[in-house]
User: What shape does this take?
Amino acid sequence: MFDSLASARLQDLHLFNDQASGLNAIIAIHNTTLGPALGGCRCLPYSSSDAAISDAMALARGMSYKAALAGLPQGGGKAVIMLPPGQVDRGALFQAFGDCVEQLGGRYITAVDSGTELKDLDEVASRTSHVVGTGQDGFDPSPMTARGVLAAIRSAANHCLDRDNLEGLHVAIQGLGHVGSNLAAMLAEAGARLTVTDTDPKRCADIARQFDATVVDSKAIYQTDCDVFSPCALGQVLDPDTIEALQCSVVAGAANNQLADDSCGERLRQRDIFYAPDYLVNAGGLIRLVLSRAGQIDQVEARVDAIADVLAEIICLSRQDQLPSNEVADRMAEERIYG
Ligand code: NAI
Assistant: This one.
């Protein structure tokens, strides 16, 4: 276990068990050099505690890198609650989780993530102040996440496709949920042409009607002949097969962990497709969370739009050093974290 902590450069790992509520939770703190570790709390069924621990560790590292590249005074952490089978008293579960967060004295700040809802965070907030984005805030990060994706697409269009606006740019969006639907609206307003897909046909029909988008099925999205492919549904969508199928010049989307593994970044580079690193592109919601907590809400939009500048630097370094963009982004983040 200590070897895997060392190889992930994880500072600490906390395991909690509360018999009364049935809580089994993990809090992984990757690094607090730049500030307290912030990251969402997942509440999902896991096949084993090892699987839950690995998930928490990988996600905590991702949060450190995301905060560092976004220039935020924040470290990276993540919590995982192993959802118990059967009937669950969610109120008791999340109150007990709030006690765990409180015990860490502010080294870890929690937020919403897969399988948790804002009302769960209200329960957490009844036990600790180290929580952001509760139901009482009424805060939805998705519009700011979409704004960050738009900023990344503008930057990539400018530096990779030599375009100074999005008029007529063809973007293929995979996933029309909270982020994808907001992004579709923003792109349409900027004059882009859209091809879209979602496993929910109603979402496709709505976007097609509102923005004159072309709808394709879930597999065909990869082969769409377009300028930008924007994954906004699931992780791990860029694997050797899908990369071979892509007919775009740029990949820029909101989904977390888009590369099936790190070598896929080099595969994209070999195909002359620029990959905008996911944890930079999707940092808009995090920027909103952190700055609103710091009372700097007036700076949010400018800081989200600045994702474009960091991406321009990555494009430049990737060309100059002949390196895949994911490697360049990791290096930049590590320089900020470790000096
Ligand atoms: P969501 O759950 O609202 O939307 C996901 C959409 O993808 C749904 O409409 C779903 O039907 C669709 N989908 C699922 N499987 C699909 C497939 N195989 N092909 C096409 N469509 C499929 O999620 P949300 O909030 O829009 O987030 C999208 C992605 O961005 C997720 O990976 C999330 O982790 C990531 N992300 C979201 C942030 C946010 O602010 N919401 C912040 C950072 C990352």
Notes: The chain has a mean pLDDT of 95. DSSP finds 15 helices and eleven strands in the chain. The radius of gyration is 20 Å.
